[in-house]
Amino acid sequence: MEEEQTYSWHSTWTKSTRTGRQLPRCYGSSLVQSSPRRKSIRRSGLEVSAWHHGYPQPDQDGFGYLSATYDLAEWCESCGIGAKQKAPFQMKGEPRWGRRGVMQLNWIFGELFVTPEVGRHVFEPAGVSHRVVLSTKGAELTSVVQLVINDEVNIDCDGLPAEHCRRCGRTKYSVVSRGRFPALRDTPSHPMVRTAQYFGSGASAFQSPLVNHAIARAASEANLRGWTLCPVAHQLSW
Ligand SMILES: [Zn+2]
Which 8-state DSSP code applies to residue 42? Predict the structure, then answer.
């Protein structure tokens, strides 16, 4: 079952020794399947971003979802850091998934939503649970759930461009859009975690979701569509 991992600056792909298939991965928006130089590295997790679809609800004043979804006691309206989820997310209706099985809401970069089937068959066996998503009328949606990410991991922020909030004094980092995601400082205690550090610009702040290779493999084998995975720079195996 062991897989060969090959990475390069502009591309990454996984070759399953079981199926023999090359599975291309994305860096940013460019999908590159071949590279003149390949370099094997050991596993250290993958940073996740996904297809963005729809907006969090309610939006009566543009940001009604904030107080409906989050405890804002430690939230800073200037930098966006500190909101803690207190209630299910609300969506306008069932997502139009097409052939995709994973998504993010616009503005909400730190959370992942999947179909209940993907939740049960890909994430639950790996120990990742999910929670309900509601319509704006409070009805449970039947084709979407939110993955639960409770654990955080520190990353190595040396050299990352940072903003310090003048209002609350907290720090957030520029979104990493090139190369590998920064190395982990701690070994994660769970197969899916988020960074303890915040990323973003302006009033947007989020903690990046990360998965281990077992989840990435299960997702590949289930042919999960809708997300991109970027390798984390190696320091610790996960
Ligand atoms: Zn702030």
Answer: -
